[in-house]
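[09:14] KT: can someone run the structure on this one? pasting the chain below
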Amino acid sequence: MLVGNNLFKSAIAAAIIILTGCKAQNSSLKVLAEEKPQIIGSYSVLCHFLDTIAQDTIDLTCLIDGGQDPHTYRPTPSQRKALEQARVIFYGGYDFEPQIISLVEAVDENVPKIAVHEAVVTDPIMAEHHHGEEEHDREEHDHEHDHEHDHEHEGEAKQAEELEADPHIWHDVYNAIAIIEYLQSLLLQLNPSQATLYLENSAKLTEELTQLHVWIQEQIATIPEGQRVLVTTHDALNYYVQTYELEDYKTLQGLSPDDSPSASDLRNLVTEIRQTQVPTIFAEATANNRVINSVAREAGVKISDRKLIVDGLTEAGTDTDTYSKMMIHNTCAIVDGLGGKCQAPRE
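[09:31] RB: done, structure tokens below
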């Protein structure tokens, strides 16, 4: 629901009065004296939200630009230097950008380092880490030994230990809205003189995403029941599948596209695709899709010509370089591929 202009301005004014009269809730963040504080954002979605909220009131350095894979990204020497000079560092967390996280942990302890995903979603979806070929074969060999009952319990315990927090929280639009609200609150602590701008921009973005969430629900509903089965390269869309009520989700790899599927993983996925009769499976923009293409050929199904954008945004100036554009692209690719009819959102 759109907020009337006068009511909107009154809400902003009230929020400013409250903020100027309250002590910052995050004791690690202090008002920065610089006109444009130096802030680091680890990857494209966080950077997009920071830039949209703060515009030119901050000096933002984005470490992992759109079109790059945070799971495997290695920072450059200049980015290492930028981390050392930053006043505040925002990163995803939950091991989403491991090379960046290891550097962030080594930065001076006086520099605030904020794992945004971990702060916003404290009870994340847990997903399996897939074994590589050698480890999987070794496990199968172990199970051929005696004491099968004991091995079953050990296998269950091992599986539980290998569940990891899924870091791809932004594929649930409400989580994205929570990220925006969280970043807004921290920016207000860092630079309260820009309260009006930050609150206005956050409110506009939140309204846009609220409408986007409803639109996605409407599009998913056009997929015939029994066909709402999503098959992708790696385990990045758990939040999307859960929030928008797809019926099943199957992947070739684990939480990172760098995970190596075993031969049995491939055979099992081909079998499941044939059994579910899913019409289309999906490659990803930043993943090596050679194996998923082979799976499609073996299973006799179409692979969508629209690759899903799952680990951030795409390069600036492309059709999916904002959060909303990325979610619209993914939704229409999934809906059309699974037999629904995606209608572009109204302007």
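[09:33] KT: thanks! DSSP finds 13 helices and ten strands in the chain.
[09:34] RB: yep, looked fine to me
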